[in-house]
Amino acid sequence: MPGNSFGERFRVTTFGESHGAGLGVVIDGCPAGLVLDLGAVDADLARRRPGTGKLVSPRKEPDAFEVVSGLFEGRTLGTPLTFLFRNADADASAYEPLRDLYRPSHADYTTEARFGVRDWRGGGRASARETVGRVAAGAVARQILADQGVEVVAWVDRVGDEASTVDEGEVTRSAVDATEVRCPDRDAAARMDALIREVRAEGDTVGGTVRCVARGVPAGLGEPVFDKLEARLAAGLLSLPAARGFEVGSGYAGTRMRGSAHNDAFVNVDGAIRTRTNHSGGIQGGISNGMPIVLSVAFKPVATIFKPQDTVDRQGRPAVIQPRGRHDPCVLPRAVPMVEAMVCLVLADALLGRAPRR
Amino acid sequence: MPGNSFGERFRVTTFGESHGAGLGVVIDGCPAGLVLDLGAVDADLARRRPGTGKLVSPRKEPDAFEVVSGLFEGRTLGTPLTFLFRNADADASAYEPLRDLYRPSHADYTTEARFGVRDWRGGGRASARETVGRVAAGAVARQILADQGVEVVAWVDRVGDEASTVDEGEVTRSAVDATEVRCPDRDAAARMDALIREVRAEGDTVGGTVRCVARGVPAGLGEPVFDKLEARLAAGLLSLPAARGFEVGSGYAGTRMRGSAHNDAFVNVDGAIRTRTNHSGGIQGGISNGMPIVLSVAFKPVATIFKPQDTVDRQGRPAVIQPRGRHDPCVLPRAVPMVEAMVCLVLADALLGRAPRR
Amino acid sequence: MPGNSFGERFRVTTFGESHGAGLGVVIDGCPAGLVLDLGAVDADLARRRPGTGKLVSPRKEPDAFEVVSGLFEGRTLGTPLTFLFRNADADASAYEPLRDLYRPSHADYTTEARFGVRDWRGGGRASARETVGRVAAGAVARQILADQGVEVVAWVDRVGDEASTVDEGEVTRSAVDATEVRCPDRDAAARMDALIREVRAEGDTVGGTVRCVARGVPAGLGEPVFDKLEARLAAGLLSLPAARGFEVGSGYAGTRMRGSAHNDAFVNVDGAIRTRTNHSGGIQGGISNGMPIVLSVAFKPVATIFKPQDTVDRQGRPAVIQPRGRHDPCVLPRAVPMVEAMVCLVLADALLGRAPRR
Amino acid sequence: MPGNSFGERFRVTTFGESHGAGLGVVIDGCPAGLVLDLGAVDADLARRRPGTGKLVSPRKEPDAFEVVSGLFEGRTLGTPLTFLFRNADADASAYEPLRDLYRPSHADYTTEARFGVRDWRGGGRASARETVGRVAAGAVARQILADQGVEVVAWVDRVGDEASTVDEGEVTRSAVDATEVRCPDRDAAARMDALIREVRAEGDTVGGTVRCVARGVPAGLGEPVFDKLEARLAAGLLSLPAARGFEVGSGYAGTRMRGSAHNDAFVNVDGAIRTRTNHSGGIQGGISNGMPIVLSVAFKPVATIFKPQDTVDRQGRPAVIQPRGRHDPCVLPRAVPMVEAMVCLVLADALLGRAPRR
């Protein structure tokens, strides 16, 4: 089965290679009559864009998009909503020497194992460039969620060993965007910033984690037993480039707790059923319980480093590779809008697909 | 969208509540002509069954199954293959006092939020009993995989803070099953065993992690960009009861590494392309690379404890709950066959659904 | 992709061979809280059952069903609703001589071409017996539709050349069931009855058409451009055994009309927008318009005849076949509940899956 | 569920409104490594294009397309293959007077009933212009089929009462294209041509039927019980604008036959199993049997006529409509490539999705 679509009711299909004519996304199932805020789409895209700060890849991607279909007089028609992005700055010459080599921990070898052919000019579909369509679609999903009082905020939680402390109940997007590294804990952000500069100076890269909270999600979203809300979130987030782990609620740390400490007691807060703690991360039995949904995603260090590495070529002959070109020493700051986009897509899909009760 | 099916090509649909007439699974897309080893299905089911050891829930579930359809003269017909399990030992009286209470960190409240009604006799679909169909289907998938040389082995990696050291390349099912706790590191197993007994004596529960390796997976499985192999695995594993986290390859630990240390150099081993290390966990760019697939799953402590807990009833009035009945102090040993089953389902689906090349 | 499921939101999966242990259906996505009228399910099943009249196959099928899951205290739980039917009267000895022969215009040869194996004891999944699960699921769908004021009535429109005249706006189920042949035009019914008896006496079979009307369908159902309501109806109805054609509205006859005569003028009837004529059959641009949905299905003559026929065996050697056993000379009367079931399934799916508007 | 995708393995998603910025199609699941013949795509598009003959709508649509993604150095990458069409000649002023009126037997009213909003500049998604993406995708599917020896040819079978006689085993595309009306029976073509001119002179329109044959389809395609090959074909063909009926094999005519005359005797032809007659139309039990697949589609008369018609406006007030602009008096000649495209899409999907046997 082809794998370029995500979601059932709010269904996105992305297309395009990093160095082809263009990329884009078709959203099928966007509700009709939505007054689309294209400026908000642009703002989300700007956060994903490389080359806007000192910490990330200097590739110039204007990310100007065209709405090809689905929008009329400012409102969605309920028909497929299509965003098209042109690849402007797509000089492939830097990739020419890599044409027959498999870059370590990239998708070059596996793409050939799977498809037999490969667009060697960059990462093709495996490039982070592919996420441009996800972020655009996520921005549309975010507008649908905002109408229902749902707010999604992600931030860089840790870079390498530099960890932050952030209040999930209070964190705001403006606090996240106040630092270039997108960590609202200013002290931690400074340490992360320093680490990324150090790593870049070494021609190396570093990984880390993004945390995300969704506040205002109504109780009752999720479709047991296989489309539990955390299963859908995990699928969406592990589909991001470089994602290697996922946690919801207490995650791995919670596995070290006793049940008596981990259980979230129910309490009545002004007539609403809430839990005293939120180790469940807002999801119990695969269904949202009305508490904030909290999750984390692990991102491995970027595979493109500026040091010589052993590899083989297409004929299996040993070779040494030394990448050149434009790359991030750390994907984390740009991963923040990508994580938010996938969470928005999952939640909008769940919200719109909510089964009717009799 | 209803959520009780999993997989595209090898598609399983489970049905049944923990205390209803029965449960089961329909497998649509099982290849025709497979000589089904029902003894192997039974063996996998026996590992999932509670009440077979000292460490786990004493509920008696014979798990005798009937093959209702899809099998003729010992071979699969290619038509839906249906396994039916009867609920024999389903005394619901222990649940009667809980009828109007929401057990903390169970699915009682969210099930009502989602559906408006609930079978209060046990966990309904949220019960671990539901996984009986998954394990049966996983056993069928395992036979398909074995034909292609793929082997899936999981084990208890950690209980609370008691961690093990296991060689992913060598670990075998018999080594796993040699200890009741299903940890092939005998020293660690003894410590885990002691911890579980201690926790049980306290009327409490404890969580942990399961690791799993799939060896012999051919390169080329996975469907970018949304149905990357790790995304499918994450979805399958996070759909298990009590699962709260997922890692592939180096996972969260890898996020602390530098790219230069993390990258897996390609090498030519007797004509086959392999990687020197396997931080990628056998998957690069969402596609298998022929190396062992390695993953972990975090399981929270079981929610049913034998201590009084605060909660509310259906009217939102404060209440105190003291569960009785039969329960596991630690789900980890029984989670091992569940993890294997989901991994088998994902891999068989990917293998059978492999796109034809021209 | 396996093909034993139908519907997106109200999703049915049927299983079982005609001469195996049993058959059934899992309904995933049935709304929770529905007070299920099992007597109504039984009544629909009785109409499908062979052996209840003089005109049809004398096979005894009690069709007693068990609700295995999804129902608690008389109400649906919103979880998979499973109906199980046992195969009681399943003597396969009549099929023994046909074991290696391909019966003309049956599915024997194609089943082997597709699957390599075949349950030679009857038609397997190609048997009309498979529709027992569809009719049960359709009866559940009918209850959901009835709640919304939607009524579905089918009847035998023509047998061979014996045609009827029936008022689609007025026809009722009781009028349909008043004759054994299920044609509410009594004169036509008598002619059809005579024709079927004549054909049976010859050891032959005859085909015909069923018409169906759905009244009370709200405007706005259907999902262009591929899941237009008529496309979903056509798919459902062509999936019935022996179905060879489908029409909606004016169908083939309408192709002979001029547009000026065919167009349905809009009129305002007491504040509701209606059309003066209904050549569109209640569907325009793939979306219901609030007028009665009218369709027909063509059923070929039953393939099992009691005359010698040329064929080949599994080795391709010429052979002569002379079927024995129990068979219908005309499937039309029993096709009426099957057609209604599929129409109910399509409409309930469309109704429950109705996209939310903003 | 949104409805703008078709197919499981070879999955097409169309987007775009008739008078928006553009339209297109994303094909997900096109096999990698296919040397795409873009000239053949263009040739199929040319047949669909209005304004190329005297009989059809004079709208100028150059249909120049851009391949935005999925193609590299002339070969498909196995990634989403995207065709984009710009809307050049999209003057909407002719639609201005119709802005608040519901054109009889168009999708105006139902689109508003479904979505609440509507692009009044033309038919939006209901326009035949939408099929441009289907035809492009169908041309790609046709190349995949041709590699396997499958050939798909459709023709105009009847216009109004003017019927043709065509040998399904021999008919070729060049014979079809030899007449402007696309009927290979020259006498019939002349009569059809005269009828269409007459109807146009009256400001009226007329319907008819298209027949289609697929030769060389291997035995074994189709997925009972719901995705039988004829069910998929019916769904695809009924999703075409103006389609109102579908037949496979003997269709409605076959319902008047006796089983003894209708059954297709199996014969051994040079070691291959064939049938003496082909009333089954190449499909038995929902699975192809290796004989030519034969089907027909009924197309109603075009709804746009040049005569005054009664209707209502958006407020339900009576109004009279008199369409102006560019329209076909008969859609049949242009429907030929549309029918072929949908048949190619269904067959390529079935061929690529063929389940592996053990």
Q: Layout of SSEs?
A:
4 copies of one chain form a homotetramer.
Chain A: E1 5-6, E2 11-15, E3 22-28, H1 38-48, E4 65-69, E5 71-72, E6 75-76, E7 81-86, H2 108-115, H3 131-147, E8 151-159, E9 162-163, H4 173-177, H5 186-201, E10 208-215, H6 229-238, E11 243-248, H7 251-254, H8 259-262, E12 266-269, E13 272-275, E14 283-284, E15 287-288, E16 293-299, E17 309-312, E18 318-321, H9 332-352
Antiparallel strand pairs in A: 1-2, 2-3, 3-7, 4-7, 5-6, 8-9, 8-10, 10-16, 11-16, 12-13, 14-15, 17-18
Helix pairs in contact in A: 1-3, 1-9, 3-9, 6-9
Describe this entry's structure for a reader.
- Four copies of one chain form a homotetramer.
- With 358 residues, chain A is an alpha+beta fold.
- Chain A has a single domain (5-352), classed as Chorismate synthase AroC (Chorismate synthase, AroC fold, 4-Layer Sandwich).
- Chain A is built from nine helices and 18 strands.
- The first copy, chain A, has helices spanning 38-48, 108-115, 131-147, 173-177, 186-201, 229-238, 251-254, 259-262, 332-352; strands at 5-6, 11-15, 22-28, 65-69, 71-72, 75-76, 81-86, 151-159, 162-163, 208-215, 243-248, 266-269, 272-275, 283-284, 287-288, 293-299, 309-312, 318-321.
- In chain A, strands 1-2-3-7-4 form a five-stranded antiparallel β-sheet, covered by helices on one side.
- In chain A, a hairpin with a 6-residue loop joins β2 and β3 (22-28).
- Chain A is globular, with a radius of gyration of 21 Å.
- The two termini of chain A are 34 Å apart.
- Chains in contact: A-B, A-C, A-D, B-C, B-D, C-D.
- The interface between B and D is medium-sized, with 17 and 16 residues.
